[in-house]
Write a structure and sequence with these properties.
This protein is 45% helix and 14% strand. The chain contains 22 helices and 17 strands. The structure holds phosphoenolpyruvate and magnesium ion (MG).
Length: 574
Amino acid sequence: MPETQHNGEKTFRGIPVSTGICRGKILVLGRALPTIAQRHLADGDLAEEVNRLEKALVKTRQQILDVQRKVSEGMGAEEGSIFDAHLLVLEDAEHAWHTVAERYAATLSGIEDEYLRERATDLRDVTTRVLNNLLGLEEEAELRHLKEPCIIVSHDLTPSNTAQLDKHKVLGFATDVGSKTSHTAIMARSLRIPAIVGLKDVSGQLVSGQQALLDGHSGVLVINPTDQTLFEYGQLMLRQATAQQQLRDLLREPAVTLDGHRVLLNANIEQAADAEQVKANGADGVGLFRTEYLFLNREHLPGEEQQYQDYRAAATTLKPLPVVIRTLDLGGDKFLAHMQMPTELNPFLGWRAIRISLQERDIFRAQLRAILRASAEGNLRMMYPMISGLDELKQANALVEEYKAELRQEKLPFDEDLQVGAMIETPSAAIVADSLAKHARFFSIGTNDLIQYSLAVDRMNEKIAHLYEPTHPAIVRLIKITVEAAHNHKLQVSVCGEMAGDPVLAPLLLGLGVDELSAAPSLLPSVKFLIRRLKRTEAQEVAAFALNCESAAEILARCQELTRAIAPTLFETT
Ligand code: PEP
Ligand code: MG
């Protein structure tokens, strides 16, 4: 149910993940399948029902054949043959439906049928088509080919869905599930599309074509907004435009505290083309280039040459600014359709990031060689995601040395002094940071994961979003341990998780000794504004308070109190 309903206007509240206000028609996608009520049929109705099922099956076959033809023409026969599996499922309709029923039975009795688990996606796809046809539902609009600008409403959007969105047609998006640090939310910020997640069952309650207003700052989705609401939002947008201007005025100024401490503010990017945004927001460089987005939504894995071109493009566009390229962080919530990635019970604890790279040597080799080669052409650095202990770091470093030797043999240039760092995103890495520091040139704390792994709170799950507390005393202490270990070895420490883009938390991080912050380009101006009104001594006082405090809420309150006092205008535009 919407939270409030007034004059035909309905208001839903969720978790705001990407700021901005947009207004337009909604397009509801990927709704969860409707509940199918059980009906008792009179004998006389049976023939009609069988007829309905047969028609649906015929229509489904036709649709699959159409898709197969299009895919074969567009991408090749091999890709098209993927749909043979769908046709086979459909071939013996009775068997397919029986199998579905069997699966339910197996689930109910707690026995997991491995074969069926693997076929589950194919089965789901086909059964959804049949059901849609049975129920007369239109086929889902293709995200890539939206006809008009719209606000996407969906149960969920995966990172690969999000990467496909036609940026010019998508005004905003709203999903039932998700959280601030899910990669879908991160992608929305990077695309600068206003977005709200965690709206519970919103996709089931709305229909395509309804007018909506989406406020990605406060997390409010208004359906059929009244004139009064539109007027109020118009006023708010004017105030925000003034505040934005205030931030733009600082674009060329450095992030320096009132008592003269310079902080490096870097940008997080997902593709080389984002480099323009880095400059437009006055960043000091790129602190995190999430390379896995180069791999999503491609028919084939990008090889060394393709990656080299991408990394070189980022490096040369931003030269002499530094660009930190993170090696592949697949797994978790980022999967490749064309790579056999196992279905795991706990994907964030499973085959992810550096663990995949160290096992899939061909993929890692292509990426490391591409980064090394691109390092000849700009100020590149590199770091590994999800390091959980010293062995992984040493293994990865040994591979870098091996590929450097190859390149020397091949007489291909690279930066012999390429700085290689480790991400600190597991509690184990933070605790052994003193050992890691001997084998890394810098640290970058990935607080999105550090929080989820330390507090055992799935970063994707909106049901437990209230437990996902960046100011938890455990997180404060882990950051402190990491910074001390780094500084003892004369390494710089950056924070590149979402915490770094929140001006309220900047004093805490700086007070704990963090040297650099890296966040979505659009978030940097507010952080800079705040830093320029802060004294380093105030930041150190907040950090000292936090290190002695036992409550996440109290630490957060202290951070809010300070930031609101020194930069009130930053928080006035809501
Ligand atoms: C992090 O975990 O904080 C991080 C920056 O990496 P990602 O969000 O891509 O997992
Ligand atoms: Mg991470």
